[in-house]
From TrEMBL, chains A, B:
HAMAP family: PlsX. It comes from the Bacteria. Catalyzes the reversible formation of acyl-phosphate (acyl-PO(4)) from acyl-[acyl-carrier-protein] (acyl-ACP). This enzyme utilizes acyl-ACP as fatty acyl donor, but not acyl-CoA. One of its GO terms (molecular function) is phosphate:acyl-[acyl carrier protein] acyltransferase activity. It comes from Shewanella fodinae. Pathway: Lipid metabolism; phospholipid metabolism. It is found in: Cytoplasm. GO terms for cellular component: cytoplasm. One of its GO terms (biological process) is phospholipid biosynthetic process. Belongs to the PlsX family. InterPro entries: FA_synthesis, Phospholipid_synth_PlsX-like. This is Phosphate acyltransferase. The lineage of its organism: Bacteria, Pseudomonadati, Pseudomonadota, Gammaproteobacteria, Alteromonadales.
Length: 342, 342
């Protein structure tokens, strides 16, 4: 791996430096060529590094940021009034090419708005999208976007998400012409609201995209398509509902498995495999989600991410930076959009 | 139980009479005072009853309908051109008080549109909503609406759903002032799209509704609220995603439990409890969903419902008819809407 530098919003998320700093240290142990810029309140960050060996701290650069973006800040407010925040500072470092990527567990709306203003979107893209990879029954991971960066989207925006998702999947999985579907209330052409109806029209007339039509919620985890597109409102609720139902199922299984030594033993033996499935149910929480469509790499970690989860987000940023994802997406986008507009 | 008469759309659903007629016969065996009107193609229905004992067939009345609503029919088309369909005929029977309720497994959009025109909505209600009961971790069932009858809703419509859901829950569970929440991408006040934001405003200023604010997808199955409101696009995808994730979890558990005699044995023991949880994941499929806000009882069964599922839908219709649900809802609605408008 060539030398990489990531900027971490050390203050982001529900736990701030208590989580982000130890996760950063772990990441530096994993990647010997990695450098990290920890952006935030140096008075909180520095003490957390006092016990860390110098061959690790020598690859950490602390940049003081006097402000924080609060979880309750409206995007417009954060944009206007949090110019000295750790989140904004971390994004600036990517823009100024001092960092190859940025990771934050902070306010999604604010991160999206700031990233858009600071890094700018790729040519032909109006709004970035939050995307993550979900597990499926046939082990073909599926990319779902948008996961909450855009709570309301018109057809043109959903169309751009479809193009970006397709390009991302092709760039990462090397799969040619990945299949793309729109999440809808039914698979029949007449189903759905105005946005999905119009988006379907746009995609049907775009041979560069391998559009498969509508799919319903129960098909998300079947693995029959590579990319699933929906607005951020639906995507966010879909992902979180998956987490909720997995917990319910786990809970009811546990309840059903508490009578009798033999069955309790079974429950114990099953716990790890059930837990590992449960862990996959919320990729945003455990793998981080990427904000794509920008001229830079931004990885969003879940707000209440623990150390392991935030480390996962850092690892995702390392992978995307190593693959120079934005450049890859931009190149594919250019050719597709060129064809579409010609 | 006093004598009840239900009208069944015998042609509705993916399987038509092959499923609906045997389910009807089962229902008549369960309820000795029940009468059923089977509406549809008598040439398909009659042969399916040839082997049935007369004390059952004596309580079956076949009404011939020369048409069917197709699953692909647009609501407006079905309304205009399927006036002689089994679905329309069954709804007419409820309107003419020849039947106490109607059950159909047909096209949801068409059923919703026809029911609205034929039966009319209750005073103060613009659009009926599809509602069902979901299981939760603390065993407090939660009412989720709308499940797909209205793919796009303005704030006023969502507000009416909240009132109807609250009244339905109070009427059925006898719980005073049931708690109502709006499904959203975050619990903070600033989160969400225009519709949920405006609906929250309306509910905050309605003391008659025990409004609890926003909840996220992962909280649906926690059982912390009695009623959850969302538009039909989100509700439908949420419900179907729950089914999908449950299947994925079951699949992955099975995969994790195939090595070794002992573990396979334990896995077999687990299967029933997993299956029973799985069954609950799609109440629309297994229990039927109610179309509420109408001047009559309409129960929607899943399109590909099997005999047991369609029987469940008939049982739900029997319960609602026995409790005279529309009258109960109308009375509570009147008082609430009176207070709101005064």
């Amino acid at each position: 791996m060539t030398d990489l530098t990531l900027a971490l919003d050390a203050m982001g998320g529900d736990h701030g430096p208590r989580i982000t700093v130890p996760a950063a240290v772990q990441a530096l142990r994993i990647y010997p060529h990695l450098k990290l810029i920890l952006v935030g309140d140096e008075n909180q960050i520095t003490p957390l590094l006092s016990q860390v060996e110098t061959n690790i701290t020598s690859r950490i650069d602390i940049r003081h940021a006097p402000e924080e973006v609060e979880m309750g800040d409206k995007p417009a407010f954060a944009l206007r009034c949090r110019k000295q925040s750790s989140m904004r500072y971390a994004l600036d470092l990517v823009k100024e090419h001092q960092a190859d990527a940025c990771v934050s567990a902070g306010n999604t709306g604010a991160l999206m708005a700031m990233a858009k203003v600071v890094l700018k979107t790729l040519p032909g893209i109006d709004r970035p999208a939050l995307v993550s990879c979900l597990p499926t029954i046939n082990h073909q991971p599926v990319y779902l976007l948008d996961l909450g960066a855009n709570v309301s989207c018109d057809a043109e925006t959903l169309f751009q998400f479809a193009v970006m998702g397709s390009v991302l999947c092709e760039a990462v999985t090397k799969k040619q012409h990945p299949s793309v579907a729109l999440l809808n209330v039914g698979s029949e052409e007449i189903k759905g609201n105005g946005q999905v109806q119009q988006t379907a029209q746009l995609l049907t007339h775009t041979p560069q995209i391998n559009y498969q039509g509508f799919i319903e919620g129960n098909e998300i985890y079947c693995g029959n398509v590579d990319v699933i597109v929906c607005d951020g409102f639906v995507g966010n609720i879909t992902l979180k509902t998956s987490e909720g139902i997995a917990r319910l199922l786990l809970h009811q299984l546990k309840q059903g498995l508490t009578q009798g030594f033999f069955v309790r033993l079974l429950a114990k033996m099953l716990a790890p495999s059930i837990q590992s499935v449960l862990r996959q149910m919320n990729p945003d929480h455990y793998n981080g989600a990427s904000l794509i469509g920008l001229r830079g790499i931004v990885v969003k970690s879940h707000g209440n991410a623990d150390e392991t989860a935030f480390l996962q987000a850092i690892c995702l940023a390392v992978t995307e930076a190593t693959r120079r994802l934005p450049e890859m997406i931009e190149q594919r986008l250019e050719s597709i959009l060129l064809d579409i507009n010609s």
